[in-house]
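Hi there,

I know you've been waiting on this one. I reran it after we fixed the sequence typo, so this is the corrected version. Both the input and the resulting structure follow.
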Amino acid sequence: MRDKIKCIIVDDEPPAVRILEKYISQHPDLELAGTSNRAIEALELVQKLQPDLLFLDIQMPELTGIQLSSLLKDKSEIIFTTAYAQFALEGFEVNAIDYLLKPISFDRFVNAIEKFKQKNNYSNFSKEINRADNEYFFVKTDGRNRFRKVELNEVLYVESVRNNLIIYTKEEEIITYNTLKHFEENLPKTKFVQVHKSYIISIDKITKTDNQEVWIGEKEIPIGDTYKEEFFKRINQRLL
């Protein structure tokens, strides 16, 4: 499993720093390595910490973000942040990943991270996450780029219905546009298993099973022939 994406924030506006710190803490693929409010100090920080990704304000004292980016010599990928839309073109001319206009919304932030992951072949970044029971992931829940936090230990099972997935918890059903294959690759294999072309289930939530079906509470889910061997292999690992 690859490490998380190491980030540094370089911005001389404390409210902007706090927003980015919050967003980074909420994103399961990111970790904050450090912050700086001075461009010169940021040069030393990048040399020391070698981050994957830099959130870089354009308008700063001493050096602008554009000038700082030229000194970094591609040591880190850059997402520019600024309150001034007129700097967008200049930001892209130095090959930045993206340009975030303040105040930055969370959905726009997540889109910028996806651009970074695509450029740097992080498409399978979260495979076998093996998160603790109280950890979580985000899914897009409607066409307006809203993202919903889902606690991993609350998931009962996931069902594929046409072009959507339905994530079932004890409390609700969450609909997202995605593929079952993507979920199967990214959910921790110690906790989830695919049992049918249309279903992934939480192993901990199984109440009973036979050779044809498995039950999650009162929900009866078929076991497809393609998935039987792996499913019963997982069951046998917990057999007393």
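Quick highlight: The mean pLDDT is 84.

Best,
R. S.
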